Automatic annotation (TrEMBL):
It is a multi-pass membrane protein. This is Transport permease protein. GO terms for cellular component: ATP-binding cassette (ABC) transporter complex. The chain crosses the membrane at residues 26-47, 59-84, 105-131, 143-166, 173-193, 224-244.
């Protein structure tokens, strides 16, 4: 057990060092959601609670949805692209040849993505506080922690699943955005959706349930969005099954 934990710690440390030693990538990972919530704060900071934002103020709504988007970026988009790139340049093949267990490798990636997501969410909450959105109190922390970890795990699994279907690193950004871009918009991330048909469909997709679960964790008494968490867990299992069946460590022939 101690050996497994030591290997896991070294893998997390490796992923963190790799991430922070690419300052341009690290900067924009955090800068983009902070910039978005800052712009929204200046645009919507004076709008009070309304039915249009489901009983929340505009900025309370956007703090939740932009926080969800930052987790998507760290755990789905970047992970899928990184894995496709590492597979093509032969790094995954070399990792496979080491004594590091496959499960420890992916747990290290998950822990790294959770850490990056936490930093992103803290920054977004901080910017929201500047514009008058209250910080979550102690009663919110359990639901917020469970939602973030489950969401990160689900989107990491989906990222690995999508990476297993990508044939080469050059195609990875296009494939990732092709899947993510429409999901973000139909899930009400940048604009609340009040069309019942669209919302009913989006409720069975992974992004809207994550948005709703985060909004529930951040708002009111910090309750658990169990329905959204259940959908997230189901998508995480589906992504993991695809990854187990289709993931390749060796570069694919062109």
């Amino acid at each position: 057990m101690s050996r497994d934990l030591t290997l896991l710690w070294h893998q997390i440390r490796y992923e963190q060092l790799t991430f922070w030693r690419n300052p341009q990538s690290a900067f924009f990972t955090f800068a983009f959601p902070v910039l978005i919530i800052t712009v929204f704060g200046m645009l919507f900071g004076g709008i009070g609670s309304s039915d249009y934002f489901f009983g929340l103020t505009a900025l309370q709504y956007y703090v939740g949805t932009i926080a969800a988007t930052s987790v998507l970026g760290a755990c789905y988009s970047q992970l899928a692209i990184v894995l496709a790139t590492r597979r093509q340049n032969g790094l995954l093949k070399r990792v496979r040849a080491t004594p590091l267990p496959s499960g420890t490798y992916f747990l290290g990636l998950l822990a790294h993505c959770v850490l990056v997501s936490v930093v992103d969410v803290v920054l977004i909450l901080g910017v929201g506080r500047v514009f008058g959105v209250p910080l979550p109190g102690p009663s919110h922390w359990p639901a917020l922690a469970v939602t973030l970890v489950l969401g990160a795990a689900a989107f990491c699994a989906l990222g690995v699943g999508v990476a297993s279907l990508i044939r080469n690193a050059e195609a990875a950004p296009a494939v990732v955005q092709f899947v993510l871009f429409p999901l973000v918009f139909v899930s009400g991330t940048y604009m609340p959706i009040h069309a019942d048909v669209i919302n009913r469909v989006a409720d069975f997709l992974p992004v809207r349930p994550f948005n709703q679960a985060l909004l529930a964790a951040l708002g009111g008494d910090g309750g658990f969005g169990w329905a959204g968490l259940g959908v997230l867990a189901a998508w995480g299992v589906a992504g993991a099954l695809v990854a187990v069946r289709r993931f390749h460590w060796d570069p694919r022939p062109e």
